[in-house]
Amino acid sequence: MSIRPVRRVSESRPTIEGAGVHLRRAFGFGNPRDFDPFLLFDDFRNDNPHEYLAGFPWHPHRGIETITYVLSGVVDHGDSLGNRGTLGAGDVQWMTAGSGIIHQEMPKGDEQGHMHGFQLWANLPSSLKMTDPRYQDVQGKDIPEVVDDDGTRVRIVCGSFWGATGPVDGIAAEPIYLDVSVPPGRRKTLPVETSRHAFAYVFAGSGSFSNASDPRAVKTDRVGSPAAAHDEVQNRSLVLFDRGDEVTVQAGDMGMRFLLVSGKPIEEPVAWQGPIVMNTEQELRQAMLEMRQGTFIKHK
Question: What's the pTM value of the predicted model, to 2 decimals?
């Protein structure tokens, strides 16, 4: 077995999206090669309703899939196909934009004003860029959770892990999307198929990721604030892994909770403008033209 070394650690950065939603972006709108098939990852966590209630009004998507995972609060959504719904705490929505869809997402906090969730964008291969749009809305109660003997808990949003399979299926990149909680002081090794690109995003507690011989992270590159320039990873840390077939984590005194996400690289050219992702600049120009002409939506 080969432990994946840590290639890079960074911190998600504050940004504003939609109609003024304050969030943290872990990666996106840069070189997508390192995270292929994933394009963007946002942490929309806020306790101030004035910084998120304006939401994400009507906007287009084409050529990608978006994965929204809500931990607290609710997100109301609707689209140009007439779909409507609400995501609550623990729920997941996997939207395949395919040939094109126009939708909106409007976050609302819980009774205390807390709002917390994540959105991940996954690329579609050229053969599926113009596929029919579809939704997979999954309630939290339908997401399996596996508990190991040492108390480690894993919610399986997508893919198969430890003998359980998540409810989201039919995704081009065959991703595995896990919500992992490791108890205080525990050391845990988790399998990740070698051929996949993989990253972790820490959102509670702290700890470290390590190789087989040294309990400290083995970094080949490091970016982020000076405060992050040590081996411990903590809240809002993004960890990009190199090749290997397993990840080892050492939880700190407060335990650690993180998302562990992996997918098979698509390895195709990316032409990207906002929420529209194609393979060539010509395809991107065509999408923009269709937006102006009112012919963007192919399936009604």
Answer: 0.92
